[in-house]
């Protein structure tokens, strides 16, 4: 018996196969002569009654079969050749266009060094840079360039026929001529505040004329183009946000929302065997390591929450409710401070000049920025007591901070509108003649644009000051001072939630002021471009990787969601400004019009009868109500279809888990049977998938940095 086993070991795999065949009877090999490789099927063709469980083929034979298959030249039709050529062209075009994506290598490097969470911030920032640049091209093509090319030398406003301006002489007063610059600092103050020489330029609403420009037989309706461009600008941004959210949701569905894959699937499927070079492999290693860190952290918190007793669970939720009440109180206090600062600034700024006047003009921006720093910092300290997972903590921090920032902007606008419209009191002395406070706001649209301009500029200056005067000195102290305090403080950690909220806040300010400051998207493009490079430099020079990572896929969705909230707020401002507030009589393309939207109706009245009937039908209830009902039906169908697909995906995932458990059970049964039958150890290993994987796939194994797979729970456990 020993001699027979030794001979079997010497013969190796083929000898072992021959010993199995000798036990089960004559095989095809013994009947037909030398072995034959059937490329059509690799299964044994013996009768089922005499065929045991199929054994795995060695890696050498698998490679030989694959080479033979590649050597065969299939007979393909003309349609197949065209399909392959089209796929090849599509792949080449996609690879070529990938070169045009800005900062692709830089973002890939950031993801390898600091994880997917920090990388998602820079991807989001790149999206906003491209969005603002395309928005500027839209505004420049339909408003700015035609106004520059077709503008008349005197730029005299035209009074529409039938417009009664009797008694409106005070409303038409608009003193926009800048004073003589006695010193240079006045020029600098005007540049910061948007007043003086900058107020009557293409930067603000008040400079654009209400005339229909004509040049060489070509006419251009500037007011209509101004209004339609602003509307299409908002629709364009909405489409871009929805498309991006769709891509993120598609990734979420494909990856199973992140943590459901389990450690085994991540270890065996995340590595890219096509990587070349130490730099690329190192970045990929760091990326997988951060993902495993996120999975381990969230599983640890999930297991700790599951181990709580009912009393501990009730106490935890009661603590969270109390902490949320504290957060709400802080946010309400910030809103009250912003409203008071805005009222004081609008009331006292006109009484002062110089630096004091500049500080009073920037007082709302200062209070908003201070609130956006202090309140989120206190909320982050409170969040440590809530004991949430890293991804949930990021989402909660985003929702709290976006509520603070966006509603604080809404409080600022509400305070301005209350002063412009005299709190809605039409019979008030200041608003009785012009239907707006013309004594304090001769051109209220430019004043709102100046506020948004100052908010954008102050936000940019604050970011630069923090980078230069806080993060860089902190890094120098940590690197060159060895005291206990500096070691305890450490380098700056790049916190994703406040940085993302700063981007959302800046973009919301731009959307809010785009109607009153048309060049604000260009300013924001330059601002985000500079911030990207400064943030990237300070990230590698001054920051350290985050102690607690979070899942970037789900966070990307919430980034787009809070951006959508900012868009909704800006759309409310746009609609209210167009439909409710009377335009200024002394400036802008909508002077002498009852509302901005009335320009659309006036333009439709100048069209042919058939075109007017078409627009009247589209705007009637007989068309809008059925369209709304049809949209509800389509949305309900899509929602039901998505629910069915979601349930199908969940069922398939459960089936995959069950198949994994069945395979483990069968392998265990095979081991038990072979142990009972007395099969030698080396023959028993042929049934062990783990041993086969280790023997045949050693050449394609991931790097040694990955954690030991056997130390993690099985994939079916998750």
Gross geometry: globular
Order of helices and strands: HHHHHHEEHHHHHHHHHEHHEHHHHHH
The pLDDT mean sits at 75
Q: In what order do the strands lie side by side in the largest sheet?
A: 1-2
| Share of residues in helices | 55-70%
Share of residues in strands: under 5%
Global structural class: mainly alpha
How many DSSP-defined strands?
4
Please report the distance between the alpha carbons of the first and last residues.
45 Å
As residue ranges, the low-confidence spans are 1-53, 689-718
Please report the number of helical segments. 23
Over all CA atoms, what is the radius of gyration?
35 Å
Report the major sheet: 2 strands, antiparallel
GO molecular function: mechanosensitive monoatomic ion channel activity
Membrane topology: Multi-pass membrane protein
Organism: Denticeps clupeoides (denticle herring)
Family: Belongs to the TMC family.
Structure characterization notes:
The chain has 718 residues and is mostly helical. Helices cover 68% and strands 2% of the residues. It is built from 23 helices and four strands. The chain has helices at residues 2-24, 28-32, 59-71, 78-99, 104-149, 184-193, 222-255, 262-269, 278-306, 310-348, 354-361, 363-383, 390-420, 444-480, 484-489, 496-513, 520-542, 552-579, 598-605, 609-619, 621-677, 681-684, 689-696, and strands spanning 212-215, 218-221, 492-493, 543-544. The strands form two sheets. The protein has a two-stranded antiparallel ribbon with strand order 1-2. A two-stranded parallel ribbon has the order 3-4. α5 (104-149) packs parallel to α18 (552-579), α13 packs parallel to α18 and α16 packs antiparallel against α17 (520-542). The model is unreliable at 1-53 and 689-718 (pLDDT under 50). It is found in: Membrane. This is Transmembrane channel-like protein. Belongs to the TMC family. Keywords: Membrane, Transmembrane, Transmembrane helix. One of its GO terms (molecular function) is mechanosensitive monoatomic ion channel activity.
